[in-house]
């Protein structure tokens, strides 16, 4: 099993270009379906972040051929229940809309016309021929999707774990695009109209990075022809992601305390590092995060939650496109000082290289298993390769596995020296006001 998965992760994508859109195709008979993913990325900007977020919500309501939402959904049913969806993501300082389609291979159904061709026709129309009325989106669609977006943003505030995580980033990166949520700002939604959204959409098509991925029993040549036929794009120039060095702050650790009606404290911390996805120390940074708080055997979970009984949850996450590591924990209100102290102790232990052989081997196993399992999912392989496109660093999964296996405690200690605590954010109750 391990060898099979490893071989799969070593498979590469063939690359081409049509309409200033980068095409990435992995021909394989491994899956019974075609996986299609279209990434459309623009820089995070306060003036456009909400319009970008709302655009895919509007596009999913209908197309020129299927202007009514029920027709749109019935068309997917006609394609043997094809899956269609989207996400709005933040990767470093970029806001990325990802459209996905999952459709069965023609070899397994009795279809008169190629399902892959029909899928491309559908996706191309979603992107380039939306359901317009008098050169604007239908008001009823925009109004409904504005409410959908508003509820999505409200749900973050209502989920205090997510809210604290977002607020920590906002305070940590208050002068950087990264502070913005990929779904935009609630206060901007009301001012968006059907007319303004269409104007923004037209600029978005021209200025965005576009990367189309396909995994399945096809070829680069076939996909390029289908894109030519299905995507009515008139793009004047190729757009590329621009890499930015991680921002380092020359300031003391800032502490932000916010009071709301909560029964449990949310203690979040933000750290900055010079290591990003394209760095040679990336594998060591992954190991750093894994040992610190990435898994149930990690230092935060064991020492803060289990041994000291100070937290209901305690973990860490590493954004390799931004060079930021965040720590999340839920604590009793009165345990703030103790929790901060013991979390700082874990950060210090990473810098001194106080890492056991068990922590090292368990973390290597967890990360390596995750990388190997990428080969079992077409969309996971697509997501992994998109890291290459976004960062400019070609690191095959097989190479990452080898790098993880060769990481030493000294390597992790060296990486730890680059992780510096920047922000402490604490969400607590209103007592004492």
TrEMBL record:
GO terms for molecular function: metal ion binding. Transmembrane segments: none annotated. It comes from the Bacteria. Residues 192-365 form the Peptidase M16 C-terminal domain. This is Peptidase M16.
